[in-house]
Model the fold of this input.
Amino acid sequence: MSPTPTTQAPADPQAPLWTDTTRQALFDTWFANVQGKHQLAPHTLRLASADASFRRYLRVDSSAGGTASSRIIMDAPPDKGDCKPFVEVAELMIQAGLKVPDILAWDEANGFMLLTDLGTHTLKDVIQPDAPPPLDLYLDAVETLVQWQKASREGVLPVYDRAFVMREMELFPQWYVREYRQVTLDAAQRQVLDKSFAAIADSALAWPSVFMHRDFMPRNLMVKDVAPTLSAGASSLLPGGERLAKPQVHASARPGGETDASVPGKPSATRLGILDFQDAVYGPITYDIASLLRDAFLSWEEDFCLDITIRYWEKARKAGLPVGNDFGEFYKGVEWMGLQRHLKIAGLFARLTLRDGKPVYLTDTPRFIAYIRTTCARYMELKPLLRLVEKVEGIAVPNAYAFGRTA
Done:
């Protein structure tokens, strides 16, 4: 069994770090203030990665504590987004015993943040296309997910409600169908979408809510163990060398961008590190397991997906999580939740290409359409949506469908 991954282009080491001289000047001032305390080597600054949003990341070497290591700098212009959700969700995850980057310094006003580096190897990076799926690492992901969901409580994160669900699906007709495929839907076709979207939303929201990462997938899970380090203010390592995690930073940025974080948090109880968690919400328990196994960038055969989903369901039940007593119903909920997610992703990635100039994302279009068609083909109530998608794609009605494989 092998995945069909898409490899994104690595950061270009020759690319200029700054194209906006005003923002570069702000950065230089902030960096000069944090450089000495954290023993950062300015000549080692390089681009680490950029994500699908407004954020990008730099990596810089550090000799803090007398040990050669590296740090991550988040560059997040405040006029394009708020870093507070990142800080707040990081604290929730630390409280849940999860491994996330420590926030070492934060210039809230200008959108610069210094973080510990969880390494360079994501779960996606270590997957070998010609090898069986890494069962042990996926089970680590299941353990991490259950740990996160066990910490759930109402009134903390934004609610993933019906308006939220529908708004995400509307990206599909707006950006994928109309803008990317250049197809104009007639009234009857729009009615098919409306009826299908309503049924998908009903299915999603029928499941109880928990803390939801929203992008719990291999490219956001770090597999390299973090070397034992101390967070600011911590005085010792735990037995066995486990690091003390740093709590949320509530204070506004001090002059120079330093934050007050003197009280250590809870130690990490899971092996995998977690990234890209700032969009977490409170929503259906089916979402994150669907995200893990119906990945936007790689696909597995259904027997493996079933195996991992069953293992997750059994572990979640033992933990008292609301996954129900009927695995068949739960698996249907996961499939329908995955359908919602891939309708959204198809539209989102089309928008990234057409509006934001990031065409690499649409190279995975066949995967999204295969997920959508496979799920729609299994349920009679989704057959009209299947026919509509096939018409948009110019695909003749197939004789058979294979779960999770690209067309």
Remarks:
- The CA atoms of residues 83 and 164 lie 21 Å apart.
- Residues 327-354 form the longest helix (28 residues).
- The first strand starts at residue 46 and ends at 50.
- Confidence is low (pLDDT under 50) at residues 1-10, 225-267.
